[in-house]
Amino acid sequence: MSVKYKRSPEAAPDQTVEKPPLYSVILLNDDFTPQDFVVDLLQQVFSMPLPQAMAVMLQVHHRGSGVCGVYTYEIAKIKVEQVQALAQQNEHPLRCVMREV
Ligand code: TYC
User: Of the residues 27, 30, 42, which should be mutated to test ligand 1's pocket, given the most ligand atoms within 8 Å of the CB?
Assistant: First the structure.
């Protein structure tokens, strides 16, 4: 869903621009992808510091899924593709999806 907001304090009151929709990038659990691989990937693709990467990996491992970040459509799509490419190159069944916030 898109929301309208005022462009700036200087803008005329009736002047609005569309706020872009945002997408969560979500990692899904599986029984085969090594935990270390997921931690490395979270650091590499999502620029997470090690403690955060470990926390997100454990969240996915224990709860089934976890949010890696929230982005505009094109950025979220690139992140999902990067995760899928790394998983494929390393022959892991890791799944990653995006969902509108
Ligand atoms: N459950 C996996 C294991 O025990 C680890 C894992 C974590 C896999 C997160 C995927 O998105 C994932 N090796």
Answer: 30
Q: What is the pTM of this model?
A: 0.86
23-32 pLDDT per residue, tens: 999 999 999 9
Find the residues whose C-beta lies inside 6 A of ligand 1: 27-31, 33-35, 38, 57, 60-61, 94
Per-residue pLDDT reduced to its tens digit, 34-47: 999 999 999 999 99
Minimum CA distance residue for ligand 1 atom 7? 61
For every residue of 63-84, DSSP letters joined together read HSEEEEEEEEHHHHHHHHHHHH
Q: Which residue has the higher pLDDT, 18 or 82?
A: 82
Helix (H, G, I), strand (E, B) or coil at 46: helix
Measure Cα distances from 38 to 7, 21, 57, 67 in Å: 40, 27, 6, 13
